[in-house]
Amino acid sequence: MSINKRTTIFTSVIISSVLLSGCGLLGSEKKEEIDPPKTVTYTDDGTVTEESVAEEGVDQEVAEETIGTELYLFDKNGYVVPQTLELPKTESVAKQAIEYLVQDGPVSEILPNGFAAVLPADTEVNINVKDKTATVNFSNEFKNYKPEDELKILQAVTWTLTQFDSIENVKLQLNGHDLNEMPVAGTPIGASISRVNGINIDTSEVVDITNTKAATVYYVAGDEGAYYYVPVTRRVEENNIEGLVAELVKGPSYNSPLINDFAHDVQLLDEPKIKDGKVTLNFNESIYGSFEEKVISEHVLNSLVLSLTEQKGIESVEVMVNGKADLVRENGEKLAEPVTRPENVNTGSF
């Protein structure tokens, strides 16, 4: 159900402006405003009207506001991967995010190289959010997917929606009827699903699933100059900080195209300490990997932060070596403060 409101927002007036942007795997785009702001009104039908003029006698161009949104797409290896793309600013952010998962839809013009939309072409969607649960009603075209893509589609929809603070669980409908299982291959859904159900599930090296717990860690994928992070849910004996770190050090499955940047002999010297949302990790010197003393790989650091902040109650990660917090990042900056989870993951197109 759409909300028909006129929304007044502020945007910059650009005159031969220069946008200074920082684009990275975990960064966010920053724009420098050259001229004073002006008020512009955006309506649901796409109309843009000027309410005021910043400077008289000057031709002005209104820049459309966008917002970085994580879309979970298929990469070239078949993984479900978040890509942060700039979408038009709207009040119906959840509905728009799912609409941008549709093949041959508006996402087609901004898809990063090697990535594909996950929902069948012409799929229409409506979303209702209540009590932290998003009910997604798909049109009949939703059924036009390959059986082998079913679980990945379910994961892509769930993780795309649960990026928003107002959504923790997802329910699916087809033409207004509740789905307790997916319509093609019958993957169970139940009353609702959430991130607890996992993503890119890997049980290839598990002997006894009953005595293990699910844990999601982030590995590296891609090629030189085009790396990105992939969430993978694996089975661990203990779903705790030590268990997650051990999975990162262990690395992805042997036959996986994913990359491991951790040295095989990385170890925690002390039990992780958690206080006020910060987890402190004390490693041996192997955390430096192939770098010279005190330099930590960005991939190692980012994988740690992304993996650990998926855990409830953890907001930042402090890394120490032999009890000292005097590490240096690859860019030469001191790692003086705990690292928080980035607002956007895998930003930009490569």
N- to C-terminal distance: 35 Å
Rg result: 22 Å
Class by helix and strand content?
alpha+beta
- The gross shape turns out to be globular
Kindly state the percentage of residues in helix: 10-25%
Protein name: Sporulation protein
Domain GerMN: 94-183, 241-330
Organism: Robertmurraya kyonggiensis
Pfam families: Germane
Describe what this molecule looks like in 3D.
- This protein has 350 residues and is of the alpha+beta class.
- The chain has three domains: 64 residues, no CATH class; 130 residues, no CATH class; 132 residues, no CATH class.
- The protein is built from four helices and 18 strands.
- Strands 3-2-1-4 form a four-stranded antiparallel beta sheet, with no helix packed on it.
- The longest helix is centred in the middle third of the chain and has 12 residues.
- It is globular.
- The two termini are 35 Å apart.
